[in-house]
Each structure stands twice: as C-alpha cells, then as structure tokens.
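User: I'm curious what two different proteins look like when written out as structure tokens. Can you demonstrate?

Assistant: Sure. I'll show them one after the other, since each token string lines up with its own sequence. Here's the first protein:
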Amino acid sequence: MAWGVLIVSGCLETLWATALEASKNFSRLWPSLLFLVALAASMAGLSYAVSQIPLGTAYAVWVGIGAVGTALYGMAVLGDSATVTRLMCLLLIVGGVVGLKLLH
C-alpha cells in the first residue's frame, strides 16, 4: 500500500509543479488552487509512505517520479527540447528509481 501511495504522490508532485508554472506567479486563481491542493496531497502521501518505507528511499523515488514527469510534461506540452541525451538522462533516473524499489 505504501508504495502505491508513494507513486501517486510522485505523480502529484508533477501535477503541482506544472500547476505552479501555469499559475504565472500565483496570478491565476485555478492553477494556484490546483497547486496548493496537489502539493498538500503529495506531501501527505509522502508522509504516509515514509512511515513504512525508509526516508531516503521514499524521498528519492518521490523526487524521481516528479522530476521525470515534470520534464516529460515540459517536452510534450511546453516545447522543451527532447534530445536523445536528455531522454537518456531521464531513463537513468527511472533506472535508479526502479533499482531503489527492487533493492528495498
């Protein structure tokens, strides 16, 4: 259960990061509210997960999911460059996250 909550929390990290950008420095109401709700839910999920998963592992997985998700969103939606080297670096992060899960 804790791993599932952690994965959802990592996805919520991507959501709050993209909502933060869309809020335009908190000048837009709905993206700002989405940011706050997603941030609170993401932190609550991380808090629950660390009660059953070692802190370092849980945090690294949470950040990895959020970082990869946010980078992919930037490439797919915001026009960030999607070079082979950038994608390979993201695969390295995914490999590290999977490794942490397998070695837990």
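Here's a second, unrelated protein for contrast:
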Amino acid sequence: MAPALTAALLLCSFGPLAAETQVPATDAAMALAGKAKIAKMAETEDQALLEAGRVLDALHLSAKTADWDRYFSLYSQDALFLGTDADERWGMAELEQYARPTKGWRYDVMERHLLRHAEVIVFDERLSSLAYGACRSSGTLIHTLAGWKLLQYHLSFPIPNEMAKEITAQLKRHDGNH
C-alpha cells in the first residue's frame, strides 16, 4: 500500500474513535484531523491522475488497434485535435474523417507528466513512433459525469535547438515566407 494511502487510512481511523469516546478536541487532535484531510486530498489527487493516465493509455491503444469507437469515446464532444501539420486544427468530425479510413497509428509512451488543477488535468508525453521517431503530445483532460475526457490533444515533433534554424528555414521556404 502506498505510504500516503496508508497514512490516510491510519489518520482517518482515529476520527471515529475520538468521537465515540468523547475525547475533547485539542490542538494535537485538530492537527491530526487536518493531516487526515490533507492525506485524503492527496489520495483523491493520486486517483484522478491514475484515471487520467488510464484514459491516455486507452487512447494510444485504441489508435494502435484502430478501435475508433473507443478512441473517440475518450474525447469530449467539443474536443480539439492539433496535428503535426499547421492546417491540422480539427474538431472531432474532421478528425474522424481522417482517422476512420486508416488502420491506426502507433505512438509508444516514453515519458508522461500530469498536472491537476481542480477538474482539469494538463499533460505532456514524450512519444516514440516507428514512422516519425521522437514525438511529443500535450493536452488537456476535463472531469465530466462520464469520467476524464480529452478536451485538447496536440501532437508535435520536438526539434533539437541546434537544428531549429535549419528546419525553420526549410519551413519558411515551404510556406513561401522569405
């Protein structure tokens, strides 16, 4: 059992005992109750981050297996997908038009970071792709009545700083911007 969870369970177990035995509230008892509340909040935070991680894992697995019904069920209806091309700013209808005819795509998660702000979780992932090599995703999940859903997903190619001028010069030539 995780130390925070063990602490939360231990701290929470003292509450009813104190109430049943009519122990008067002391500074120590109030501090203990405060620690229990903080431990419970940390446990809830950990659970939310675990659930969000499972949503992202399911996203990658369903894309890999072209399980498009499952894939699109992980997004909110008003979600936005930002692809690697500058013109790929798609709502779910546009993303479905692109995705459903394909046999899927595979991105393996190398590293993931999640940060919760109330009912919103932002994330970034370092990904590996057979087709593209190193990639990065970032985005936002929101908590809904149906659980955590993707509100925004952004896929990009990280460019090493020492290559940035060369690559951006190529992009400028491609776009016709001198």
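A detail about the second structure: Residues 27-64 form the longest helix (38 residues).
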